[in-house]
Structure formats: structure tokens, C-alpha cells
Amino acid sequence: MIKKQLFLLVIILTIYAPAELTRAIIVYTSMEWQYIFEIAFIWVLYVAGVILAGVLIWRTNGGEKRPGTFQESKEP
Fold first, then answer.
1. What residue ranges are annotated as transmembrane (predicted)?
2. Separation between Cα atoms, residue 45 and residue 34, nearest integer Å
3. What is the mean pLDDT of residues 47-54?
């Protein structure tokens, strides 16, 4: 149940952040410091959402190692 809610939150953040950022850039022509802080905060939420989605997908797959990745250890 909680995984579904977290996944929904990630989807909402992933869709919301770029759309809000694009709207803000188009609407405002003069950038003030408060506005730059708002853009940075929106992008922090976006990056956090993408990372959380990646972790959830990785855990759903069981965290298995894939051949050819840095996690694979080859012993001589």
C-alpha cells in the first residue's frame, strides 16, 4: 500500500517539476533571488523524485546484479 502511494508521489513530482519550471521561465523575464531559489527547490524535488523512482524500481527487481555493470566482480 505504501509503495503504491510513494510511486504515485514520484510520478506527480516527476510530471510537476519540469512543467512548473517551464511555466516559470516563460512567465518571468526578470529573475530575482527569491525566484532563483524557487527554481532550485523545484529541481531538488524533481531530482529526489527521479532517484526515489530508481530505487523503487531497483528494489522491485530484487536488487539483482546485471552482467556488465560495475557491481559484477570477476575473480581471477
1. 34-58
2. 17
3. 82
Q: Residue type at 31?
A: M
Residues 6+ apart with CB under 8 A from 38: 24
pLDDT digits (tens, 9 = 90+) for 5-50: 777 777 777 777 777 766 776 676 565 666 667 777 777 887 888 8
d(CA 40, CA 46): 10
Q: Look-up: residue for cell 517539476?
A: 17
- Render the burial of 17-32: b for 16+ CB within 10 Å, e for the rest: beebeeeeeeeeeeee
Q: Which helix (H) or strand (E) holds 53?
A: helix 33-60
Q: What pTM was estimated for this model as a whole?
A: 0.44
